[in-house]
Specification:
single chain; mainly alpha; 59% helix; elongated
Length: 156
């Protein structure tokens, strides 16, 4: 059986590193804005086509403006855009664990040479979570964060 403390330490280390360097408004913003720039012309072209069939029960009619706006903020039936949702989630995780995300996105060269910081239980990053009995809350937050990151990456 895997020691829960060892599993938690590894999960927290991964969560901290993901939020600090990958899943934050700076890094995701660069990627989302890159896709926005790259795809904008194609989306504009696609949304101007005359459709051969339009579903009579269609709930949504996406426009080029929806594409541009939903990167930054939610519109209509969608309360969050990609970047404002990422900002809220990253801020929540940082507040919960007392960490900060990078103010500048890592370049691929910097990421390859990055020295991963080992975080031990009981350190300033732990905030006594291991000894306070809230093990499952911490693991749940870490798992939700990882699942969220995977869903965002798969959608992009």
């Amino acid at each position: 059986m895997v020691n829960q403390h060892v599993l938690l330490r590894h999960t927290l280390k991964i969560t901290y590193n993901i939020v600090q360097h990958i899943f934050n408004p700076v890094a995701i913003g660069n990627k989302a804005n890159g896709y926005k720039e790259r795809l904008s012309e194609e989306v504009l072209w696609d949304t101007q086509l005359t459709r051969l069939h339009v579903s009579p029960t269609s709930q949504f009619h996406f426009t080029h403006n929806d594409f541009l706006t939903n990167i930054e903020q939610g519109t209509g039936a969608f309360p969050y855009g990609i970047l404002d949702w990422t900002q809220r989630m990253a801020d929540l995780v940082c507040q919960q664990f007392g960490i900060q995300y990078d103010s500048k996105a890592l370049t691929p060269e910097e990421a390859a040479n990055f020295d991963v910081q080992v975080i031990e239980a009981g350190t300033e990053y732990d905030k006594d979570n291991l000894s306070s009995g809230i093990l499952m809350s911490t693991v749940n937050i870490a798992m939700v964060t990882i699942a969220t990151i995977l869903s965002v990456v798969l959608l992009l």
